[in-house]
Amino acid sequence: MDFTILILTGHPRTAAPVKRFYRKTGIISSNGRYEITLDQRKLKTPKGAPFYVESEPLAVAVATEWDAQKETIDRSSMHLTALSSTVLDNPSGLKKMDIVNYLVNYISTDAILYHSSHEQRLKELQLAEWSPIVDWFNKRYDVELKATDGLEVPSFPPGTAMNISRYLSSYNEAALNGFMFAVDTIKSVVLTCACMDRFISVEKAVLLARLEEEYQLGHWGRVEWAHDMQQLESQARLSAAVMFVYFNSSNAFVKQKIAGGEI
Q1: pLDDT tens digit sequence for 82-121
Q2: How does 113-152 read in b/e, with b if 16+ C-beta sit within 10 Å?
Q3: C-alpha–C-alpha distance, residues 65 and 109, integer Å
Q4: Torsions phi, psi for 27 (to 5 deg)
Q5: CA-to-CA distance for 157 and 168, rounded, in angstroms?
Q6: Cα dihedral 92, 89, 98, 179 sign
Q7: Angle between helices 120-141 and 189-196 (to 10 degrees)
Q8: Sequence-ordered list of residues with C-beta below 8 angstroms from that of 37, at least 6 positions apart, any chain
Q9: What's the half-sphere exposure (Cβ side, CA atoms, 13 Å) at 20?
Q10: Which fold has domain 25-89?
Q11: What global pTM score does this model have?
Q12: Which CATH number fits domain 96-260: 3.40.50.150, 1.10.3580.10, 3.40.50.300, 1.10.472.10?
């Protein structure tokens, strides 16, 4: 009998955590697709479709997310599972060019293009930390982004959108979902691209995205555990996005076989 397990997405009225209901996590492969099993039962997406990925390393990473769950299942920590399900179910009905256009249009509100207009010390810090990233982005993608210290939307020379769109379009739809997840996490296409191209680390990208917040906390104080948790969560989300883009953009395979199909 073919058993399947529907990926749990949660419900706003559901407060009780879901207990872990499986012992072993495994991977099965067929025709270039990799499926996740929990006690030999296959996962399904929230919409009930077969859950699979086309990258073996990604399958291992997704299975590891499930294997890492303890007594209860923390769905909010399973970013790779959620991203993979989003690609398969496409709940928003987005096509590849919809995502590309979303990312290109996002640049006009990119967090690191807006410098402080009323705090000189903060502006100096932003210039010192953000400008090198913008300069790298301009050189890397042959564009001329410029920051503003006002409320007006920065204006970009002709060809900017086309160059960035051409670069993003080189990725497949799955990888672009990872880009979108990253941008929504740190509110910056520039920082996301710098991170994806390994110009800066995930930790650096998150720190730069939080620059103004960290500056203000330096003046007004901070609740250590709360802000540390926010920073770690952003790092976890961005790390998952980077992994997701990489695994969906490369032909990497796991060389070492997983004994018995189990993690």
Answers
A1: 999 999 999 999 999 999 999 999 999 999 999 998 889 9
A2: bbbbeeeeebeebbeeebeebbebbeeebebebebeeeee
A3: 33
A4: -135, 135
A5: 18
A6: positive
A7: 60
A8: 25, 26, 27, 28, 43, 261
A9: 16
A10: ATP12-like (3.30.2180)
A11: 0.88
A12: 1.10.3580.10
CA-to-CA distance for 75 and 73, rounded, in angstroms? 6
pLDDT value of residue 256: 47
Residue 62: both structure tokens together: 């997704």
As given in the structure block, the two tokens for residue 201 are 């680390």
pLDDT at position 238 is: 98
Burial class (CB in 10 A: 0-12, 13-18, 19+), 35: buried
Tokens encoding 76: 């909010």
Rounded to 5°, the CA angle 167-105-242 comes to 50
